[in-house]
Every structure is written in structure tokens, then in C-alpha cells.
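Milestone M4 deliverable, item 7.
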Amino acid sequence: MPFTPSTIAALVIASSFAAGLNVYATVLTLGLLAHAHWVALPPGLETLASWWIIGVSGTLFAVEFVADKIPGLDLLWNGLHTFVRVPIAALLAYRATSQLTPEMQLLATGVGAAIALAAHSSKTAVRALVTPSPEPVSNIALSTGEDAAAVGITWLATQHPWTAASIVIVLLLITVLMVRWVMKALRELWQRFRPAPAL
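Output delivered:
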């Protein structure tokens, strides 16, 4: 499917969200699809089809697949990946829009980074709520679901960009509502455990 400026915008929206969940799965999926000639990526993303990028992203995806399912380590991993997922999502958006005007390219880069940050932040917040549970099943199921969502959204973005972008927009709205709920829950928790003022 040839990418037009409008479908590139949809690809940026969807792939940025997927990168916020799991950037290595997103890059690996795009690279494998392009390498197998199942999709022709926008010109700026053609390098993702190289074997060294596929190999590095595949290795890091395997490491994240394990690390993200270990309670405690997953919080540290996700915290550190604030400095990986968001910049790489911004870079993907920048490269995907290389044939657009510089102004549109910078706008796409900013939008890509913001979407990735929203997805990453919601993932980290949910993980912080789930990780303390004593049983490991919920943590493993949540992590596996995030991996599957990253791969699924990325694939859908290459086949039906506007469908993928529409799904992401709905997920972003849910994220905004969820963040408000988490902040309210944290405020109530703080009020409950705040020490009483000294008399």
C-alpha cells in the first residue's frame, strides 16, 4: 500500500502509541514487514528493513519480554525506558515524514513524542498499580498483552492506517480518563496516610 501524506499521519499516530508500549516490538515488526516486502514503508523508514536493525531490535525485544514480566524489575525497566521509547518514537515520526515540509515534519515529530509519552506513562502507571500484587499472573498477563498490542497496532498501521489511528485515538482518550482516576486515587491515598499535624 503506497503511503500518502494522510496515511503517513495515521501511521505516525499508531506507531508512536505502539512504540510507547514497546519500542523494540514496534521497530522489529516494521523491519520484518519491510524486509519481507509485505509492506512498502515511507522512504525515511526503509533502513528499518536492514538485518542489523532487525537483529538489534529483536534481541532487545527478547530482553524486554523477560525483564518486563519480573515484578520490581519491570518498574525500573519502564522508568529507564522513558528515555528510550519517547525519543525513538519521535525519530520514527521524523523519518516517516521526511518527504513532507520541514514544518510538518517537526509537527509530526512532536506529536509522535507526545503520543508515545502518553502510552508509556499510562503503561507505567498501570504497572505500578499491578506490580505490588503478590501473585505474578496479573503482571505477566498485562505485559504479554502490551507486547501483543504493540505488534498488533504496528501491523494494523501498515495495512489499515486510519483504522489503527482511530483505535489509538480511542485508547488515548481512555488513557486521559485513566490518568485522572489514578491521580484521584493517589490523592485519596495520600490524604489517608498523611501524618496528622502536631498539636
